[in-house]
Amino acid sequence: MPVVHCPTCRQALTVGDGLGGTVVTCPACQQPMTLPPMPAAPAVVAQPDFVESFAVPSRPPRREYEADPAPLRVGSTNWTLVALGGGAAALLGMVVVGVVVWVLVGRTTATPSTKDKGPVAKSAPAPQPKGKVEPLAATTPGRMDDANLARIKKATVYVRIRTAKGVSSGSGFFVEPGLIVTNHHVINHPGRLEVVTQSGTVETRTYPARVLFQDATKDLALVEAAGATTPGVLQVGDTTALRETHEVYAFGFPLGERVGQEITVTKTTVSSIRTGGDRKRREVQLNGGLEHGNSGGPVTDVTGRVVGVAVSKFDNTSVHFAIAAEEVTQFLARYER
Predict the structure, then answer these.
(1) Which of 46, 84, 245, 314 has minimal Cβ neighbours within 10 Å of its Cβ?
(2) Where is coiled-coil annotated (predicted)?
(3) 297 lies in a domain?
(4) In whole angstroms, what is the distance from residue 219 CA to residue 242 CA?
(5) What range does the domain containing 20 cover?
(6) Is residue 329's pLDDT more than 80?
(7) C-alpha span between 258 and 256 (Å, rounded)
(8) Would you say residue 139 has pLDDT above 70?
(9) Residue 219 bears catalytic tag
């Protein structure tokens, strides 16, 4: 607090804040006095409880595969650099000596005259094959030929169920005239079941269908399209020759009619062969390539044989699955019995 002096007795007095300009009585001489104006007390700025540091790091963060360089002490000698410099100087000296020797030897060596040369033999022409030479055929490894591609596309169908809530859809393929293999979860909805052949082409046809046989555990179903003209059937093969990294092809109608009525063909690769266990069926694990709507469609090798039926995937991953062809063969054999 500020200190003032009484104008009468010069007694030092301590004045409280906010009393400047008021009339008070000096406690020493009992004489009235007017206090001079007092300066305002400085304002106190409240400080936050916590201030987060945004300091710029002294060096950028290093990548995990970058090793920290060993520091070089100030005033120390880098013997590695000295050794490299000495080696470079020695090598340069050897090169200079070699050039001088080569020049001197070249001058002292007699150059033979053209008169001393014997007859120069002419090289015989390379023998040419007899008969007509056929050009090599151009091949594209891993590419399915056009005939197989067209055949599988014709045999793959769009499976659709019209329900009270809308349309549920998937894919399937002919294994016999009028008989179509698909997934159980594709047709397991109440409503009117239809199959569309050669969807998205001028030959497209829609047929009513019914479920003949199904297995919820294997997630397979056999559907009959009454009166359907079968544009082709597919052979169900096996997975014995299938290996990881082998290329396969998924045929079907991903996302239904939202992306169009035409068939989609996707090339992918085999990631693993699952032999059962807790998944209760043999499956081919694929490195992506499937979407909702591919379910029930054929997965074939490059020769066009069915090696699996598209069935499921883990969303937002490339871990996708197809039911192995052996499971399909067993399923069809049970129906025929």
Answers:
(1) 46
(2) none
(3) yes
(4) 22
(5) 3-34
(6) yes
(7) 6
(8) no
(9) yes
